[in-house]
Amino acid sequence: MAAPAPKQEELQPHAVKDQLPAISYCLTSPPPWPEAILLGFQHYLVMLGTTVIIPTALVPQMGGGNEEKARVIQTLLFVAGINTLIQSFLGTRLPAVIGGSYTFVAPTISIILAGRYNGIADPHEKFVRIMRGTQGALIVASTLQIIMGFSGLWRIVVRLLSPLSAAPLVALVGFGLYELGFPSVAKCVEIGLPQIILLVALSQYIPKLVPLLGTAFERFAIIMSVALVWLYAFFLTVGGAYKNAAPKTQFHCRTDRSGLVGGAPWISVPYPFQWGAPTFDAGEAFAMMAASFVALVESTGAFIAVSRYASATPCPPSVMSRGIGWQGVGILLGGLFGTANGSSVSVFILILAFDVGLRYFVPFWNSENAGLLGLTRVGSRRVVQISAGFMIFFSILGKFGAVFASIPGPIIAAIYCLLFAYVGMAGVGFLQFCNLNSFRTKFIVGFSVFMGLSVPQYFNEYTSVAGYGPVHTHARWFNDMINVVFSSKAFVGGAVAYLLDNTLQRHDSTARKDRGHHFWDRFRSFRTDPRSEEFYSLPFNLNKFFPSF
User: Fold this and answer.
1) What gap in Å lies between CA 120 and CA 111, rounded to an integer?
2) How far is CA 474 from CA 114, 425, 477, in A?
3) CA of residue 72 relative to chain centroid, distance
4) CB 177 within 8 A of CB 416
5) DSSP H or E segment with residue 343
6) Model pLDDT for residues 348-365, shown as the tens digit of each residue
7) Which of 50, 172, 202, 231 has the least C-beta neighbours within 10 A?
8) What span, in angstroms and rounded, lies between the C-alpha atoms of 151 and 138?
9) Tell me: the pLDDT tens digits for 16-57?
10) What is the model's pTM?
11) Is residue 275 part of a domain?
């Protein structure tokens, strides 16, 4: 017997949504306080992974030991907490965690390798001198984002962004991190793989099998899975499973190899210029400014993803520019306090290897907290503000914060496998506004994504073989400027899509509709959509003194 003919409404495509549906708590609707506190702690746990990677990679090369590493982590957490609060109150007002930005690690390595530090015999003195050099470069680099943001220049750039050019940028912010996923899990597969399986089961399957407890498993899957696998890794460690293992295996698998708990003080409050007065070098400052520009572009993509998972309307260009300005202030704070790197919401991670004298970097940018909004379906601003409170609290109580910071890396990498997938899909989701039957759309999306993956791959392969990037002149600062820019997948893919979308048949009315430009028209000004006031207006009636356009 033939199947019945489908109803007419069943043949219609899914409706386009300005705001993402099925979000439990949107940007302005906070969960109950107990739930909000747990969700905030979960955001804190997720951002710890990247916070620990920076000092673990850099501090030993700067001449520091476990005490200096623990102190830098404390400073990073403290500044991240302040920057997150500033961004949520005065910046974009989105639930974005502003953590350490690894975009700035490549220029920091250049400072580490500078010849003027080679003659310093005392390791601690060398560490302090290099730290002061990075502080000076960061202070200068912060001016780029401060000027671009608060002057409104970045608002002009963002107004030309369409759903078509935003899709590759946001997608590569997430999918471009594939190298940070399973390759890092495989460094200790006996704890990394169980973490992936348990996290998928708790967040996706159990909520459907046990509806009464589904919400709890869905929202707190990371806390539950990390606690279980971390305990399992602890038992493997004390049981002697890695007693005769190779040093690298012990470093990745054991729960007592970080050296953070022993090196961290019980109570310590970071303060500006704690390492001494910053020193300045023009070449190093220019290299940091190039990294700051890359972080600016990637942060724009991450802000767009966060606004989507917070079930808010697209962020108006004036609000985006305001957020970039305050992010520049965050980089300035990083320079004043001495974090050895800047800040961004979409951070670019450099996994460093120092084997047999070879120095090379593999780039990643990190937007895991944006993915956590999608996993939990909670986009509340209050949750991230509570998370910022945890950052500041545990940065002051060093020993307690160091305990959580000692979670083995493969467990964190397993979490990234899910969270970065959510970020990438936020970008793919913007293609719903575009005409996918248009060959112009196919060309721009396909070419930009391919080049965003291919060009950085060339730079990374060249660097891993030669020990330096394709641009290798006598001016190290110039090399860093070019190599950092073209090693970022999100930057390259986003720049190609933006250029093509705004030059290819730009004035054609059909092309304008195909690129989804008309869907975002009412969000290009703060006042043309009433929802912008609800989501993005400043608190305490500050809009009267600092109006958005």
Assistant:
1) 14
2) 13, 42, 9
3) 19
4) yes
5) strand 342-344
6) 333 333 332 333 343 344
7) 231
8) 20
9) 888 899 899 999 999 999 999 999 999 999 888 777 877 888
10) 0.90
11) yes
Backbone conformation region of residue 362, classed left if phi is above 0, alpha if psi is from -120 to 50, else beta:
beta
The verdict on residue 531 lying in a domain is: no
Q: In this structure, are residues 366 and 346 in contact, taking their beta carbons and an 8 Å threshold?
A: yes
**Two structure tokens written together for 454:** 């291919």
- Total domains present in the chain: 1
Contact 425, 20 (CB under 8 A): no
Token look-up 């972080």 returns: 295
Beta carbons of 467 and 360 less than 8 angstroms apart: yes
pLDDT digits (tens, 9 = 90+) for 474-520: 888 888 889 889 989 999 999 999 999 999 988 888 888 999 988 89
194 pLDDT exceeds 60?
A: yes
Half-sphere exposure for 490 (CA within 13 Å, toward CB): 37
CA distance 486 to 31: 41
- Cα–Cα–Cα angle for 345, 351, 354, rounded to 5 degrees: 150
Query: Distance of CA 492 to CAs 294, 423, 468, Å?
Result: 10, 17, 20
pLDDT tens digits, one per residue of 260-299: 676 678 888 999 999 999 999 998 899 899 999 999 998 9
Q: Dihedrals φ, ψ of 342, to 5°?
A: -90, -165
Residue closest to 300 by CA, chosen among 428, 482, 415, 168? 168
Q: Measured between alpha carbons, how far is 137 from 342 in angstroms, rounded to an integer? A: 10
Domain range for 195: 33-352+360-434
Does a structural domain hold residue 477?
Answer: no
Closest CA to 299 of 229, 243, 370, 205: 370
497: in domain: no
Query: Inter-axis angle of helices 105-112 and 33-62, to 10 degrees?
Result: 30
Rounded distance between C-alpha atoms, residue 130 and residue 139, angstroms: 14
The DSSP code for 203 is I
Spatial CA neighbour of 114 closest among 347, 335, 291, 285: 285
Give the separation between CA 121 and CA 111, rounded to whole angstroms: 17
